Amino acid sequence: MAKPATILVKLESTADTGYFYVVKKNPRKTTNKFEFRKYDPRVRKHVVFRETKLK
């Protein structure tokens, strides 16, 4: 069996609320770390979410 191309990564809020999203990433195509502006409901704003390891 072949190894799956996508892995799950955690996008953690930079507002230090502990809120996170889980997204799929193809590490063969996207070698750099993800960084998105997404909604954080705990601060009720759009903030930057950075990729961290999913444990």
Structure description:
This protein has 55 residues and is mostly beta strands. The chain has strands at 7-13, 20-25, 35-40, 45-52. The chain has a four-stranded antiparallel beta sheet, with no helix packed on it. The protein is elongated and about 45 Å long. The two termini are 24 Å apart.
Structure described in brief:
With 55 residues, the protein is mainly beta. The chain has strands at residues 7-13, 20-25, 35-40, 45-52.
Tell me the span between the first and last alpha carbons. Answer: 24 Å
Task: Quickly count the helices.
Answer: 0
Order of strands, main sheet, comes to: 2-1-4-3
- What class do helices, strands and sheet pairing give? mainly beta
Low-pLDDT parts are none
Number of strands: 4
Shape from CA axes? elongated
Mean pLDDT: 96
> Which radius of gyration do the C-alpha atoms yield?
13 Å
Features of the shown structure:
4-stranded antiparallel sheet; elongated; 55 residues; 49% strand; mainly beta
Give the secondary structure arrangement, pairings included:
Elements (H helix, E strand, L loop, with lengths): L6 E7 L6 E6 L9 E6 L4 E8 L3
Antiparallel strand pairs: 1-2, 1-4, 3-4
